[in-house]
Amino acid sequence: MAMAEATQPSGDRVNRTAYNLAFDTPLPFFQHLNQSPSGADMFAGYMSSLDVAGGTAQHHLLRAFDWAALGDAHVVDHALPTPPLHGAGPPRRDPPSPSPSPRSNPNPEPIPIPIPNPTHRPNPKIHLTPHDFFTPQPPPIAQTANIYLLRRILHNWPDHHAIQILQHLVDAMSTKISLDRQTQHSGSKSPPQPPLLFIMDTILPASPGEITAYQEGLLRMRDLVMGQSFNSGERGWEGWVRLLRATTPPLRVVRPVVKPVGSHMSGLVLGVDVDVAVDFDFDGVGGEEGIWSVRFFFLSII
């Protein structure tokens, strides 16, 4: 990519980034990375290091949500850990171009990255299934999933693509809500719990001083990396609100937003209510427990 082209406004095009200029490629980041075994292995190692390092370690995920309270539940994780892939690269979806010239396609379509040996399961309760999250959830998933997990996923994607990902999950959650209501009307005594979406990702501070300068520096650095690589970025609360309101029906925060002590990321527990439109405000971090306070204002749909 020429410098003149790279410096032109590119909107949410994921193949018009600083990465494309630096490596002289028209391909999006993950697609280009997976063309090089050494590059994919290096990135897989980097992702593995994040899962054990300080503010991005996996144990924060266990503290951000009461998983035990789910009981015998069906959890759909769209952020599979890197180590089981044995260097095949991250289980993301890259947007290539179906045309001969990827540069000419402003909204490339996603392609799946295969998961090697999906039948190998370290735990019989865990099933690895390739899925393109830019497409609808398979009916068996949509009809049974109790909670969906997106951990460090949406920051890889500009708003346009992130909304596509969320909309397919909202559609699946709405499907289960409808089926559960039919079951309840047919004689079920206790109403089932509605499906949830749990997002574990960064919420940038709205103003200086909300977190330490060191912590904010790390988040701002990652924000720059997201922009350089994907034309995306870390989001502040207002950015998250825009995403949640953009789906039909909109997603709503159903529990206080939790930021575990020592974590760089926060946990958002979201639900879909086909009968209620929701507006909400955000007050920032409160208390030593790292709990984010949220106010809800429910508006009836006319």
Automatic annotation (TrEMBL):
InterPro entries of this UniProt entry?
Answer: SAM-dependent_MTases_sf (IPR029063)
Q: Where is this region: Disordered?
A: 80-137
Coiled-coil intervals: none
What name does UniProt use for this protein? O-methyltransferase domain-containing protein
Mark out the compositionally biased spans (Pro residues).
96-121
